Amino acid sequence: MVIEEINFECKDGRRAVLRSPRDEDAEGILHYLYVSAGETDFILRYPEECSKYTVEGEKKLFAQKNESPNEAMLVCLVDGKVAGNCAVSVYTNQKQRHRASVAIALMREYWNQGIGTRMFQEMIRIAEGFEDVIQIELEFVEGNTRAQHLYEKMGFRIAGVHPNAIRRKDGTLLNEYLMIKELKR
Q1: How does residue 184 score in pLDDT terms, banded at 50, 70 and 90?
Q2: Which residue of 47, 120, 170, 177 has the smallest Cβ count within 10 Å?
Q3: Where are the alpha helices (DSSP H) in the chain?
Q4: In angstroms, rounded to a whole number, what is the distance separating the alpha carbons of residues 27 and 171?
Q5: Would you say 10 and 18 are in contact if contact means Cβ atoms under 8 Å apart?
Q6: pLDDT at 90 over 80
Q7: What pTM, to 2 d.p., does this model score?
């Protein structure tokens, strides 16, 4: 699904645009994936795991998401630089197509600028556009209180836990929490 450009102003006055990814975003997305993976333990990959991603692979992913009637991927650019991305996907089998999942990540440089809130507003709007969707879901890693506060602000609540779902390199085990937002239909 292609989403047209949404221009907005960050809290610090910088101009941002939120839109579907384009081929010319591939290198910026790869950089963002690598940097963001090293900035926090709450992203589900380490920087070295990003080496499997390629420009061509990202372009294929962009095309798949942009052509899908059940998915949307958005990239946020601030002053022309990739700051983060988000995605919404609707389950397609009959028993689950009332559910959509969302995911979001943002480079640290762009935290506290209102970007995460703006991305969530758009993902919720997209999910609400799917006739069958009555529930939006996401997961977050134990200890990621910044994300949890954003999700709660956007109307999500904790609905479950996956014990010991994450294992850090040092062996530390962390829970992963499932959150849901029920849509008013």
Answers
A1: confident
A2: 170
A3: 26-39, 55-67, 115-128, 145-153
A4: 32
A5: no
A6: yes
A7: 0.90
Distance, in Å, from the CA atom of 58 to the CA atom of 82, rounded to the nearest integer, reads: 14
Q: Are 74 and 89 in contact (CB under 8 A)?
A: no
What is the C-alpha separation between 19 and 22, in angstroms, rounded? 9
Non-local CB neighbours of 57 within 8 Å, separated by 6+ positions: none
CATH number at 6-182: 3.40.630.30
Nearest to 30, CA basis, from 99, 69, 81, 90? 81
Neighbouring-strand partners of residue 100: 90, 136
How far is the C-alpha of 125 from the C-alpha of 72, rounded, in Å?
A: 11
Which of helix, strand or coil describes residue 52?
helix
Say how far apart CA 4 and CA 62 lie, in whole Å: 14
**Model pLDDT for residues 10-43, shown as the tens digit of each residue:** 999 999 999 999 999 999 999 999 999 999 989 9
Instruction: Take residue 142 and report the two structure tokens written for it.
Output: 């134990």
